[in-house]
Write a structure and sequence with these properties.
5-stranded antiparallel beta sheet; alpha+beta; 3-stranded mixed beta sheet; 41% strand; 168 residues; 8 strands
Length: 168
């Protein structure tokens, strides 16, 4: 009986330890714009729930990474945020910009997906659906949504991110 209890504890404990979210990036399209969700865990000193930064040049991207490398783990995952943004060069920024949106969550199973991008009176409005499952994982997680925006189609003076939470 003791062996059975120990075996069940080992199996059940192994399942609990394995309950963490995937750190593989996910890429999808919204209004013909590419969006990538990539895990970039943090030191948890901030309370980030949709903090957005507009990146309009390679220099601005480099500055963002340098200014935030103590806060975020840009090397996590395969490919990592760091590896993914290596693909952006001066040629990319001639015709495109980026919007980087950061989230911190108390569970890695909480997801974020942009469901609409629009311009309204010179303001870029990004709607994000935050999905919180009834049962979550025990890991904390931070994410970046990397939004590629065509400069001609998305010419804006300001931006706002609206996050709507759905509980499953």
């Amino acid at each position: 009986m003791r062996l059975f209890i120990l075996t069940m504890a080992f199996v059940f404990g192994g399942l609990l330890v394995g309950c963490t979210s995937s750190i593989e990036p996910e890429t999808y399209s919204v209004n013909n714009q590419s969006v990538t969700r990539v895990r970039t865990d943090t030191d948890w000193s901030e309370n980030l729930h949709g903090e957005a930064t507009h990146i309009d040049s390679l220099r601005a991207l480099t500055n963002y990474i340098e200014e935030n490398e103590e806060l975020f783990d840009f090397t996590q995952g395969d490919p990592s945020f760091e590896t993914m943004v290596d693909n952006y060069d001066e040629t990319f920024f001639e015709h495109n910009t980026l919007l980087l949106i950061a989230y911190e969550e108390n569970s890695g199973s909480i997801t974020h997906e942009i469901d609409n991008i629009q311009i309204d009176n010179g303001e870029l409005i990004v709607n994000v659906e935050r999905t919180k499952p009834q049962t979550g994982t025990t890991d904390m997680a931070a994410w970046h949504l990397i939004v590629e925006l065509d400069r001609d189609e998305y010419d804006f003076e300001s931006f706002d991110v609206h996050t709507q939470t759905t509980e499953e």
